[in-house]
Design a protein that fits this description.
The complex is a heterodimer of chains A (about 240) and B (about 850). The N terminus and C terminus of chain A are likely disordered. Chain A is an alpha/beta fold. In chain A, a hairpin with a 2-residue loop joins strand 9 and strand 10. A six-stranded mixed β-sheet of chain A has the order 6-7-8-3-9-10. In chain A, strands 2-1-4-5 form a four-stranded antiparallel β-sheet, covered by helices on one side. In chain A, about 35% of the residues lie in helices and about 25% in strands. Chain A is globular and about 55 Å long. In chain A, helix 4 crosses helix 5 and helix 4 runs parallel beside helix 6. Helices cover about 60% and strands about 15% of the residues of chain B. In chain B, a hairpin with a 2-residue loop joins strand 6 and strand 7. Chain B starts with 8 loop residues before the first helix and ends with a helix. In chain B, strands 12, 13, 14, 15, 16, 17, 18, 19, 20 and 21 form a ten-stranded mixed β-sheet that branches. A six-stranded mixed β-sheet of chain B has the order 8-4-3-10-1-11, with helices on both faces. In chain B, strands 5-7-6 form a three-stranded mixed β-sheet. Chain B is α+β, with helices and mostly antiparallel strands. The chains are: A alpha/beta (about 240), B alpha+beta (about 850). At the A-B interface, helix 2, helix 3 and helix 4 of A face helix 1 and helix 12 of B.
Chain lengths: ~240, ~850
């Protein structure tokens, strides 16, 4: 854990998860996907959620993003409970304070690279001049100088994910949620993207929750939370993934 | 500055590029809207042009006259006009005779006026005199007064005919050419100008029309006080009526006809709405994951809602502009058909060109825009319902769509029932009748997706058995994408059901008319006065009856006189009949009749009224009707209501002797000659021809068969325009199904790629898609049957009755139903050809990479 991160754990956590549980109906039976999960994430901290397929990682990520509601417990972002929030409030929260990175990039195919990056800024009413400056700066930092006018289908998978990473942080959110960010990339490209993530987040003190099934990916995190059958466990080594 | 409706530049760019990257989908949707708008505008322009042509011709003929003095029957004697003018000090009054004539290929109205009396009433004459060559015009008008067989035309008409002042021209009156001289050219103006008129002095008109000593009416400009005074002082047999009343009565005659055309055009718009709904729904469904991503990025529901509506607005605006252009082009052709129909069944109307009424264009474009936005509301709401988690769950949409099917079916049942209920409670309202019809159509089409789903599911084994794996996949493909395939089938089914429904209506109508003609035309040969030259017809001499009866081979001769006379609520067509052997035959009565019908009818106590007359004027057996006779108002009791398809504004039947006395009109319009046993029709026709050759009046001879044939020809011609509109609706539906299939093909590109990668040949893929479109076409055709039957029933029992007052039994021919089925199937197959070829051509690797 970095020194700055350690000092910030004493301040209000960016994310606070308290005893959340979630179950889905399967026919007449109920299958518990998550049970009594609790943890806090401090500002500037990078936390990896590690688990096998079906361990409840994606469900947990959806609950953290406010796109699904827990059956029990509470999720608070920046000290505010999101489980009680209505849809418009959640939308504004995501727009202003959360960034997303997906396994399948999910760039808008009909927008150029620059326009994809501009979208979160436009939604947050950032003036055009500031938008242009920030897009130029960020593209340089993700190594995509000169690709502003390209459409997603003209980019490689690695390039698309770099754009997605840039889009996730361009509006300087308080929390970034990344779902298997290298899951759809070959090993070499995955490593490059991982290095970029580590650089952007660790060096700039951003807060990130990284969902992955790969121990190697989780190594860039300050802290690893292992999920096994919907529950947090500290015995990460016993998990065979 | 805040973006409008929260639509940021990037959101708009994403939307715009989505539309441009799916050109087929976008353009088919635009074409759908454009076709709908075009049909509405074309019909409206044609209707408006016909109405305007009618209004202008009435205005040109009546001029600024506020009132008319009209006779109860026939004409007014010259001296009556002179006496009225002197006794009542009528300074602004002119005698008038008008009649349709032809010059070359063009129709005109010959207008005979007292030019000196008319000059102060018609400022246009004075304006003409004050125009460019005032002296020439003034001397020309003088020549009209002094010289026989002289006429004046508008400068526009003279130029179109290539005529100069002083040149002679043949004017066709009653089918005979009469050489006349162009004495003056008057400026063509809008409103009360002279376009379409052949202006002559009243004396010339009397001479060329063979109506010496007679005038048709007197046009006057009066104040209300003057009008009241004159009305009281008029001699018996004359009646003063406001000009507007006469014009309105004529305009009323074509109201139902115009309304029916408008309703047909709205049907095309309705089918166009299906296309828009289909396209926008697909555009939303296809972008579901993308919309989810946008929601994750913080785009609100209202922003997504506005985005979809903005896309629809853009499509609608482009469609409306194209629709306006196409509407003007189609309208130019349609106006000829509308005019011909009005000429065939109502009155002589001369519409020279399509009048581009800005309101019609705005109305059509506004309707297109409105319907598009309403159709896009559902998809826009669907987009607004997008959840961020939709990024992950792609199959949710279809599953949710399938869950909604029973609800949609239920809502459809309720909507249809509401339509049926409206029919029951809406009395005679034609507007609500149409609304009910549209509710039934919409209701049934809402029920269709569930039925299509069940149909495809039920026929999967059959398709599998018949066509192997391609057949099974084809049927399953329909159920898998029921939200789109169901809509496409519904759109096609609605359009085809319209052809089936209208086909049933026309077929039933035609059969009823044919049956009615057979019943009504009880004579073998009809001898009529060719009465084009006068409003009421000059008539044949009554003495001809005896001479006809004396001819060898004749067993009976009936006499008829038709005339338009005044009832309290406007003019009505009266047919006065006299059968040589007692009571007239060929009547089919509706409901009860008064006791001792025929004796009381013969005595002049009772009148027979046609079904449309009874319906429109709300009279029943036993009611009284006042008719304006030579002696003033006279009451008749309705003795029976008879079936009649001859006039949609209705007619009355009186005994001819009573009519002749009360209206001082002994002339005969036509004689019906019944052949004796074994008599030869051709030989008798020749004998009648010879007998009538020396009559002063032009005579036409027609056999029963010829009249029936001609009547049915007119009938068929009347419905040409309906058939064209029907085809246009199918055209719109074809665009709809093509659009839906293209959308499905795009959506399934990956599935098809997997099939190709697994070993399916191009041919097999083509077969699969064509089987699928075939199944959709057959489903649409089958669904169109019940809806078509319901539509036919509503058209016959509700629309036809409320529009025209006609009732008829529904007659369904197997041919109509089968041709509907074939139409749906062929349209679907043709629509599937291109998507099938495109899918088969696509490289599987590319499609597989796309995800």
């Amino acid at each position: 854990m970095s020194a700055s991160a350690a000092s910030q754990t004493r301040t209000t956590p960016i994310l606070s998860v308290s005893d959340i549980g979630k179950a889905y109906a399967e026919g007449k039976a109920h299958r518990t996907v998550l049970g009594d999960v609790s943890f806090d994430v401090a500002p500037g901290e990078c936390v990896a959620l590690l688990g096998r397929s079906g361990s409840g990682k994606s469900t947990l990520l959806n609950l953290l993003a406010g796109i699904d509601k827990p059956d029990t417990g509470d999720v608070a972002i920046m000290g505010r409970s999101i489980t009680a929030m209505g849809e418009p409030e959640l939308t504004l929260l995501r727009r202003r304070h959360i960034g997303f990175i997906y396994q399948f990039f999910n760039l808008i195919p009909t927008l150029t690279v620059a326009e994809n990056l501009a979208l979160p800024l436009e939604l947050n009413d950032v003036p055009a001049a500031t938008r242009r400056a920030r897009i130029g700066d960020l593209l340089g930092r993700v190594g995509l100088d000169g690709r502003e006018g390209a459409f997603p289908d003209q980019l490689s998978g690695g390039e698309q994910q770099r754009v997605a990473i840039a889009r996730a942080i361009i509006h300087e959110p308080a929390l970034v949620l990344a779902d298997e960010p290298t899951g759809n990339l070959d090993a070499r490209t995955g490593t490059v993207v991982l290095q970029l993530l580590a650089h952007l987040f660790r060096d700039e003190g951003r807060t990130m929750i990284l969902v992955t099934h790969s121990r190697k990916v989780s190594e860039i995190a300050d802290r690893v939370l292992a999920l096994d059958e919907g529950r947090l466990t500290t015995h990460t080594e016993s998990l065979s993934w | 500055m805040r973006p409008y409706l929260g639509l940021t530049p990037s959101l708009l760019a994403a939307s715009r590029r989505y539309l441009t990257r799916h050109p087929w989908q976008t353009w088919l949707s635009i074409i759908g809207i454009a076709l709908g708008v075009a049909v509405v505008i074309a019909v409206d322009l044609a209707n408006e042009s016909a109405r305007r042509g009618f209004r202008l011709s009435v205005e040109q003929v009546t001029g600024p006259a506020t009132h008319q003095i009209e006779p109860a029957s026939g004409s007014i004697a010259d001296n009556v006009y002179a006496r009225l003018r002197v006794e009542h000090g009528l300074s602004l009054a002119t005698p008038v005779i008008d009649a349709p004539v032809r010059i070359g290929e063009r129709s005109f109205t010959l207008l005979g006026l007292d030019l000196i009396a008319a000059a102060p009433m018609r400022p246009a004459f004075i304006a003409a005199g004050a125009g460019g060559d005032a002296d020439a015009i003034a001397s020309g008008l003088l020549q009209l007064l002094r010289e026989p067989d002289t006429l004046a035309l508008s400068d526009g008409d003279a130029a179109r005919l290539g005529l100069a002042v002083g040149e002679r021209i043949d004017v066709e009156i009653d089918g005979e050419a009469r050489p006349m001289t162009l004495a003056a050219v008057l400026p063509e103006q809008s409103g009360q100008g002279f376009g379409g008129l052949v202006v002559v002095d009243i004396a010339t008109a009397q001479e060329v029309l063979g109506r010496l000593g007679e005038i048709e009416r007197i046009d006057l400009i009066l104040t209300d006080t003057e009008a009241a005074a004159i009305a009281d002082a008029l001699p018996s047999g004359l009646r003063l009526q406001p000009s507007a009343q006469r014009t309105n009565a004529l305009a009323q005659m074509t109201r139902a006809f115009h309304t029916n055309l408008t309703a047909m055009s709205l049907l095309a718009m309705l089918v166009g709405a299906f296309i828009v709904y289909n396209t926008m729904t697909f555009a939303v469904l296809q972008r579901r994951p993308l919309l989810g991503t946008l929601r994750m990025l913080g785009v609100t529901r209202s922003q997504l809602f506005a985005l979809v509506l903005a896309e629809a607005t853009v499509l609608a605006l482009i469609g409306a502009v194209l629709g306006i252009l196409a509407g003007i082009a189609v309208g130019a052709g349609l106006v000829q058909l509308v005019t011909r129909t009005i000429n065939d069944i109502y009155f002589q109307l001369n519409v020279r060109s399509l009048h581009l009424e800005p309101l019609s264009l705005l109305k059509g474009a506004g309707l297109g825009l409105g319907v598009t936005l309403i159709a896009a509301l559902g998809p826009a709401l669907e987009a607004a319902r997008s959840q961020p988690r939709d990024v992950i769950r792609r199959t949710l949409v279809e599953r949710r769509g399938r869950r909604l099917l029973p609800w949609l079916f239920g809502a459809g049942v309720l909507t249809g029932l509401l339509g049926v209920l409206l029919v029951q409670v809406s009395g005679r309202s034609m507007g609500i009748g149409f609304l009910a019809l549209f509710l039934v159509i919409i209701g049934v089409s809402m029920m269709m997706p569930l039925v299509v789903h069940a149909f495809a599911k039920a026929t999967t084994p059959l398709f599998g058995w018949l066509f192997g794996i391609e057949g099974r996949l084809a049927a399953r493909g329909i159920t898998a994408s029921i939200t789109r395939s169901g809509l496409a089938v519904a759109a096609l089914a609605v359009a085809v059901s319209a052809t089936v429904g209208v086909g049933i209506m026309i077929g039933s109508f035609r059969a009823s008319v044919d049956q009615w003609l057979q019943n009504t035309l009880t004579s073998d040969i009809y001898v009529s006065a060719d009465s084009a030259g006068s409003r009421t017809g000059e008539g044949l001499p009554p003495a001809l009856a005896e001479r006809l009866a004396a001819l060898p081979g004749v067993s009976a001769v009936s006499q008829g006189r038709s005339n338009r006379i005044e009832a309290r609520d406007g003019p009505v067509l009266v047919l006065a009949l006299q059968a040589s052997d007692g009571q007239p035959r060929g009547f089919e009565f509706k409901g009860d009749t008064l006791p001792e019908l025929w004796p009381r009818w013969h005595s002049g106590e009772l009148v027979l009224v046609s079904e449309p007359y009874a319906f429109h004027r709300n009279v029943a057996v036993g009611d009284e009707i006042d008719l304006f006779s030579v002696d003033g108002w006279r009451a008749f009791r309705v003795g029976a209501v008879f079936k009649d398809y001859g006039s949609d504004s209705g007619m009355l039947i009186l005994p001819r002797p009573v009519y002749a006395e009360l209206w001082d009109d002994p002339a005969i319009s036509s004689f019906g000659v019944v052949l004796g046993e074994g008599a030869d029709l051709d030989a008798l026709t020749e004998r009648i021809d010879a007998l009538t050759a020396d009559l002063d009046v032009p005579v036409s001879l027609q056999t029963n068969l010829a009249i029936r044939r001609m009547s049915l020809e007119v009938f068929d011609r009347t419905f040409t325009i309906t058939k064209i509109l029907r085809l246009l609706a199918v055209g719109v539906a074809f665009v709809g199904i093509l659009s839906a299939l293209m959308a499905l093909e795009l959506e399934r590109a990956k599935d098809y790629a997997v099939l190709r990668a697994t070993g399916m040949t191009r041919g097999q893929l083509r077969k699969l898609i064509l089987l699928q479109t075939s199944a959709m076409g057959i489903a649409a055709g089958l669904l169109a049957m019940p809806l078509g039957l319901a539509m036919g029933d509503l058209l016959i029992q509700v629309i036809n009755l409320r529009s025209f007052g006609w009732t008829m039994p529904m007659q369904v021919s197997a041919q109509t139903l089968i041709s509907g089925l074939i139409l749906a199937w062929v349209a679907a197959i043709i629509a599937g050809l291109y998507p099938a070829a495109r899918a088969a051509r696509a490289a599987p690797a590319h499609a597989l990479r796309e995800e």
